[in-house]
Automatic annotation (TrEMBL), chain A:
It comes from the Bacteria. Pfam families: Alpha-E. This is Alpha-E domain-containing protein. The lineage of its organism: Bacteria, Pseudomonadati, Pseudomonadota, Alphaproteobacteria, Hyphomicrobiales. Residues 1-312 form the DUF403 domain. InterPro entries: ATP-dep_Glu-Cys_Ligase-2, DUF403.
UniProtKB/TrEMBL annotation, chain B:
PANTHER family: BLR5612 PROTEIN, SLL1039 PROTEIN. SUPFAM superfamilies: Glutathione synthetase ATP-binding domain-like. Residues 71-448 form the Circularly permuted ATP-grasp type domain. This is Circularly permuted type 2 ATP-grasp protein. The lineage of its organism: Bacteria, Pseudomonadati, Pseudomonadota, Alphaproteobacteria, Hyphomicrobiales.
Length: 313, 472
């Protein structure tokens, strides 16, 4: 398959995944800011949303301070922010259009339909209700896109590159949430927070759609170290770092098998997964949660670069 | 133009045999049903159009080419005539190109003025003495034909570079078969759906000798911002070949490769929809980002086949067009089966005098113009415009040709709740491979939707129709 085609497929998946992630962050932030201050403390949740989205620097180049209006605009609609939801969908469609024939018609319908629908939301919705509808729409688009890929794509290299994009982005997103919120997840004895944090913990789980899963897995009230465990090491949880790396290793191997050749990408993915599966949560806390996450984000980026060099250019 | 020839009713109002079934069917149908079908057709097209993403930016999503649900029908004997004429014409074009870039017999014989060729921008000296596989230059030709009477077809224009429109031929038929299965049961319409297979067979047949037994054919597109991108991606899909952009190809050791996830893969035949000028920044426009550096040298070394060949513009240029009858006679020693529109060449003093005398009745064109630019349509122009054009012609007569305004045939067309005659043309597609010429029975019929208008271009309110060739 053409390298450019593989590259386009990889990025379609990444952009849709990113749009979905941004929508979930915004939804969670709206929830938190709807609670009385007594429950969540006086932190600026909009500032934290910008940080979790990974675009603090570009945001502060445009605005001195984060508030509901400018964050909503910047993360969802702004054309100045290359990673706004609207830009992600636009870029996803541009990539999809360039490989129109490598996608199934179902997938094209979803992404093109979303792109057309977006025009309706173009003047940033005024009311919170309308904005929430927009966020739901983005999440549904991503669900439908993912679902059509799962149900309609041939299991060939096209599918595997698509899935690689999806999982690299997903791992990055989960790691970014952890990176911004790690101070809330430290074990009990070192933890400085109070009961206020309960709502923050719930918010973290919501932002990876895992609040219900948490209860099923641990059958306990929310404990920050268990939340960290769920998001990092639990292989059953689809957005955990471990689960993303199970997938990345599998799809890298599928490609290697089809092409009859292993390479740097396969080795790198396997290396990261092995590390994740050998680690215990208390070891991570001992050597520093923050350091662990920072290193993971950089490893994950490196894998992305390795995949690009090996296949996509 | 009340006296022009109507495809359904001729000139005297009697329904012509090929249209009898359509006439009866139209009588049975209620206008509401046709309206409903028109809307369905529009929806289907929008879906397909959107599905294939023709339309790039913001509001241009609305830019569908209008589709008329009443087909244009050609009887099998009419088609047989066209087919013979098209085959003859394209054969002559290929022989002419071989000659122009080879021995130049036609110039030595004084049939075409030497300056018309050598001072022409579309002439490519790079092609001099260049061998192309099986002497085929124009693998895909789109010949624009108009009809002015029961037996009179004129060639309006030859398109020998990168003709487009064939996707509409295929899509229009798909839509018609979905919308009007009944109508198809009244007729035996020759299928067109084998076009992609014929095209692929044609392209494979002209692969270089050095190619593998199953040559690797790709379609080269300028990219998603090209207005014909929809067609490029549609055809690549139907042919089952890779749709590549310039940046997907590289030339190494004189061989063309495409960049794949498994490393470079050799390319043997390129169906290119990129103009000569942009093919190779090393050989042509250095600012081209659409091309492939080194492609021309690989081509000249015979390592890859380009379809169509480089330099075919010298066959379909307006300045050359008027010599086509002579070209056919010169190479085939036959009378041309399809006639040219009578054309006055202003470079010749006698013709020039006539043209200047009759500016108010003629259509005057710049020889290098295209798409309706640099044109004078005498009958509709005011005195000022005619005077201005006269000055331009007198200043540089060589640059102009003139033709009579033609009474293009009309075809019944559905317009605002009624059937009315509208002017049409026809673009059949002629494929030339190693040993054979293939023409799928049909083509693209364009229709001028405005009453009385002769302009069928989609950019100026033209639409398309399905084109039926009857199978006896």
């Amino acid at each position: 398959m053409l390298s450019r085609t593989a590259d386009n497929l990889y990025w379609v998946a990444r952009y849709v995944e990113r749009a979905d992630y941004l929508a979930r962050i915004l939804e969670v932030t709206l929830r938190l800011t709807a609670l009385p201050l007594a429950y969540v403390g006086s932190t600026n949740e909009w500032e934290s949303a910008v940080a979790t989205a990974g675009c603090s620097r570009s945001f502060h180049a445009a605005y001195p301070e984060a508030d509901e209006d400018n964050v909503k605009d910047f993360l969802a609609f702004s054309s100045a922010n290359p990673s706004s939801i609207c830009n992600c969908i636009e870029l996803a469609r541009t990539n999809a259009r360039a490989v129109r024939t490598a996608l199934t018609s179902e997938m094209w319908d979803v992404i093109n339909g979303a792109w057309l629908e977006l025009k309706r939301f173009n003047n940033a919705p005024g009311s919170r209700e309308e904005f929430l509808r927009f966020l739901r729409f983005v999440q549904e688009t991503s669900l439908r896109f993912d679902g059509s890929a799962y149900r309609t794509m041939l299991r060939t290299d096209a599918y595997w590159f698509f899935r690689l994009g999806c999982n690299i982005e997903r791992a990055d997103n989960t790691a970014r949430i952890l990176d911004t919120k790690y101070h809330l997840l430290l074990p009990e004895d070192t933890h400085v927070g109070g009961p206020l944090d309960y709502y923050q913990w719930a918010a973290i789980l919501r932002s990876v759609s895992a609040l219900t899963s948490y209860h099923w897995v641990y059958r306990e009230s929310l404990k920050p170290w268990l939340i960290a465990d769920l998001l990092i090491l639990n292989q059953k949880m689809p957005r955990s770092l471990a689960s993303c790396y199970d997938n990345l290793v599998r799809y890298c191997d599928d490609i290697a098998e089809a092409y009859g050749r292993q390479g740097a990408a396969q080795r790198k993915a396997r290396g990261i997964r092995t590390r994740l599966s050998n680690l215990k949560m208390d070891e991570i806390f001992q050597s520093g949660l923050h350091e662990f996450i920072t290193e993971f984000i950089s490893d994950n980026n490196e894998l992305g670069g390795t995949i690009s060099r090996q296949y996509l250019m | 133009m009340a006296d022009c020839f109507d495809e359904m009713k001729g000139t005297d109002g009697t329904i012509r045999p090929a249209y009898a079934g359509l006439d009866a069917w139209l009588r049975d149908l209620s206008p509401d049903l046709i309206d409903q079908r028109c809307q369905e057709a529009e929806l289907l097209f929008r879906r397909i159009g959107i599905t294939f993403a023709v339309y790039g930016e913001a509001d241009s999503t609305e830019r569908l080419i209008p589709f008329d649900v009443i087909p244009r029908i050609l009887s099998s004997s009419e088609w047989a005539l066209l087919q013979r004429g098209l085959t003859q014409r394209v054969k002559a074009i290929n022989m002419y190109l071989k000659d122009i870039y080879g021995r130049r017999e036609i110039l030595k014989a004084g049939i075409i003025p030497v300056d018309l060729v050598f001072q022409n921008q579309v002439f490519r000296p790079e092609m001099n003495a260049q061998k192309v596989p099986h002497d085929v230059y124009v693998h895909i030709a789109g010949i624009d034909i108009v009809r002015v009477g029961p037996d009179t077809f004129y060639v309006l224009e030859d398109n020998a570079r990168t003709p487009s429109g064939v996707s509409y031929m295929l899509e229009n038929r798909e839509i018609m078969m979905r919308l009007f299965p009944d109508l198809f049961s009244r007729y035996r319409v020759a299928p067109v759906e084998n076009y992609p297979d014929e095209l692929l067979a044609t392209l494979k047949s002209v692969a270089p000798d050095t190619a593998a037994a199953d040559p690797n054919v790709v379609l080269l597109t300028p990219g998603i911002y090209n207005s014909a991108y929809f067609e490029h991606s549609f055809l690549a899909d139907k042919l089952g070949i890779e749709l590549v952009e310039g940046r997907d190809l590289l030339v190494k050791g004189g061989v063309v490769y495409m960049r794949t996830t498994e490393g470079p893969k050799r390319v043997d035949v390129i169906y290119r929809r990129v103009d000569d000028d942009f093919l190779d920044p090393l050989a042509f426009r250095p600012d081209s980002t659409l091309g492939v550096p080194g492609l021309m040298s690989a081509y000249q070394a015979g390592q890859v086949t380009l379809a169509n060949a480089v330099g075919t513009g010298i066959a379909d240029d307006k300045a050359i067009y008027s010599y086509m009858p002579e070209i056919v006679k010169f190479y085939l020693a036959e009378e041309p089966i399809l006639r040219n529109v009578p054309t006055w060449r202003c470079r010749e003093p006698k013709d020039l005098a006539y043209v200047l005398e009759h500016l108010d009745e003629l259509v005057v064109k710049e020889v290098h113009g295209s798409g309706g630019y640099g044109m004078l349509i005498g009958p509709t122009a005011d005195k000022g415009k005619i005077a201005a054009f006269r000055t331009r012609i007198e200043a540089d007569p060589k640059n102009y040709i003139a033709q009579p305004t033609l009474a293009l045939s009309t075809c019944p067309t559905w317009v605002e709740r009624g059937v009315a005659p509208r002017h049409i043309d026809l673009r059949p597609f002629v494929l030339t491979g190693k040993d054979t010429v293939r023409i799928v029975p049909g083509g693209l019929t364009r229709v001028a939707l405005q009453r009385g208008s002769l302009v069928v271009n989609s950019s100026q309110g033209g639409g398309t129709k399905d084109t039926w060739v009857l199978d006896t």
